[in-house]
Write a structure and sequence with these properties.
By secondary structure, the protein is α/β, with parallel strands linked by helices. The protein has nine helices and ten strands. The strands form four sheets. The chain has a three-stranded antiparallel β-sheet, with helices on one face.
């Protein structure tokens, strides 16, 4: 859940997590990206992720996870990397800031030093392996016409193939579990998938759990809801 990079930093994200900020002051922008990456790396996965992963292990065909977060928490929570869609990109992946045509590349081993007093990046900044220009996170930034969505499109294709395969198997029932999603586009996606697969949408949202008819809305916090579902699953199993 969540909204790309800007949401991760609140007002700072709105100021620095944009394409214009990268153009205006690349050292300051990369200082912001580097601090966010460090915060994401040391943050423990949300407590619900382990239970969601356990449910995946119980399913005959596993699961596919879709998130608008860019923090890599699902991978750190041991979800299969090839069964994840990161709709707004991922901060650990990089692309050419000029969008020169070079493919998106892994940036997990690229560390950027930051001057604590100024928040500015220090030393050389990540570069594009093709044209030598500056690189940027492969994340959809504010006002971003240069974002390269190719990696996300590949993830989407894998999810669509998986959904088609599951739909072709007799006796399969699909459940879409939506946890704390505020993005209208992501909520609409969950509804579309549940409808297309003739499945059930379980919408968990403490603020607004309204669902179309015949689906399930749970209006409490995600961690509490998932824990209570886990209790009931253990009774059944």
């Amino acid at each position: 859940t969540g909204d790309a990079l800007a949401a991760a930093g609140g007002m700072a994200g709105a100021r620095f997590g944009s394409l214009q900020a990268l153009r205006d002051d690349s050292e300051l922008a990369w200082g912001f990206y580097a601090r966010r990456r460090h915060a994401f790396r040391i943050a423990p996965p949300h407590p619900a992720i382990a239970l969601l992963n356990r449910w995946t292990a119980l399913m005959r065909d596993g699961s596919f996870a879709c998130t608008s977060n860019v923090d890599g928490q699902l991978q750190r929570g041991l979800f299969r990397a090839d069964r994840i869609v990161e709709a707004h990109g991922a901060i650990e992946w990089l692309q050419c800031a000029r969008n020169c045509g070079a493919p998106v590349f892994a940036g997990g081993l690229v560390d950027v030093a930051v001057v604590p007093a100024t928040g500015r990046a220090r030393g050389s900044l990540p570069g594009c392996p093709s044209c030598g220009g500056i690189a940027r996170p492969n994340v959809k930034l504010a006002g971003d016409e240069m974002w390269d969505p190719s990696r996300v499109q590949e993830q989407e294709e894998r999810m669509n193939e998986w959904l088609a395969d599951v739909r072709g198997r007799r006796g399969r029932k699909v459940v879409v579990v939506e946890c704390g999603v505020g993005d209208p586009a992501m909520r609409a996606r969950g509804e579309r998938v549940a409808s297309a697969m003739e499945g059930t949408l379980v919408r968990i949202d403490a603020r607004d759990a309204h669902v179309p008819r015949a689906h399930i809305g749970i209006e409490i916090e995600t961690a509490a809801a998932v824990e209570r579902i886990e209790v009931e699953l253990r009774k059944i199993l």
